[in-house]
Amino acid sequence: MKILVCVKQSVSGELNPFDACAYEAALRIKTAEDEVILLSMAPKKSEEMLLSLTRLGAAKAYLLNDKAFAGADTLATAYTLSLAVNMIKPELIICGRQTIDGDTAQTGPSLSVVAGYNLITGVMGITDVNGKIVCNTRSGEVTKEYPALITVERFCTLRFPSIRSKIGEVITLGAKELGADVSRCGMNGSPTKVLKTFENQEGRRKCTFITPEQLDDAIIAAKEKGRARLAPKEQSDKKLSEVWIVGEKPRDMALSVAERVRVIEPDTPKKIAELIKAEAPEVVLWASDAYSKATAPQVASILRTGLCADCTALETDGESLFMYRPAFSGNIIAKIACVTRPQMATVRTVDTEGNDMIVAVGMGAVNSLDKVKGFAEKHGAELGASRAAVDAEIMPYEKQIGLTGKSVSPAVYVAVGISGAVHHVEGMKRSGTIIAINKDKDAPVFDYADYGIVADINDIL
After folding, report:
1. pTM of the model as a whole
2. What distances in angstroms separate CA 331 from CA 16, 198, 243, 323, one per listed residue?
3. Do domains 2-184 and 208-228+352-459 have the same CATH topology?
4. pLDDT tens digits along 408-417
5. Looking at domain 2-184, what is its CATH homologous superfamily?
6. What homologous superfamily does CATH list for 208-228+352-459?
């Protein structure tokens, strides 16, 4: 079996962590009869990274590099990657859930449509590859026929090369070698356009510092207050005449830019795409749940239209939709427009499922883990964790909250011994009330908390 792994080098120069897991998953599947191949659309400088990765077991790596590919959004990227897929003809494609630079989680689902592969998303483990692929996902066990494409969570760690490992080859392919229609590549083929960017101040809160004795009262008050409610940006008098939403969750965001909202029920990508083709709406909005994140990119690929991911605000001039979303690990906000129709976006929505309270463990609380667990149990809370605590194998990946974990929106979020790196903040900032406990009074987490306690964990719990 040919197994193709899509990889990308992050801005920092490291392999994207989800892609590292995808590669390790492929190597664990590989037998003597199987072939693992790497694929990356990237600048020439990524050749060095690909060469080093071949030492782990990939037979070869393909680097898609051409000035025509520059500036591609997810639709144009999926098209270009599909040309290489058609050339290599793998039975299985493994992609990371998302990149940490772009954080759209769209390329894998889009590629599955363009290349004609069955799709499984949110994979937490692969249980069988004989005849069919069987995966454990965040939604349960899923089985698909080959050819298949799966997107994986960060459930395993990439191995190190052995002393006797050999370097493979990197084959560079441009638009000519791929037979690409350059009008569908790079900026030319990208329906979403970034209009401007600015520093992201979203999620910052005014922190009130309290004493340890006030903690229980703060939790009681926060539970009574309940979960957060997203407040869409106020609009001018000009609005779009109608906006479609898939399911009820995006309604508030839609009403911020539309006079009327039409709800269509969640369905298969094919059926939703057929309905959109038949009635030609100007705008279609999706929620930020697992179904929407997997389905919306597939519909966008079928329709060859743009899709902006994880929007936190919308605005309109009465004709066009302007979408705002975090980018580059949440450090900036980008204002984006779509030049094709329909204009589509997934918008941030608050998940009303799950526990009302989460107590998250950071490295500052690892020596007090039993006390933290007891505190969580006392309040009927679910446990969460920072990436650092998961990487140190103190907590399981299923509990990781943040950009490389999961996003949560409980009524009460208690961050215990967590510094407040932007990657973690991205996953917790939709919580109703955030309480931070840290002995460092200058910890960034206090900038995103409603209440703060500056003290040693052992003196509180």
Report:
1. 0.88
2. 17, 9, 29, 17
3. yes
4. 999 999 999 9
5. HUPs (3.40.50.620)
6. TPP-binding domain (3.40.50.1220)
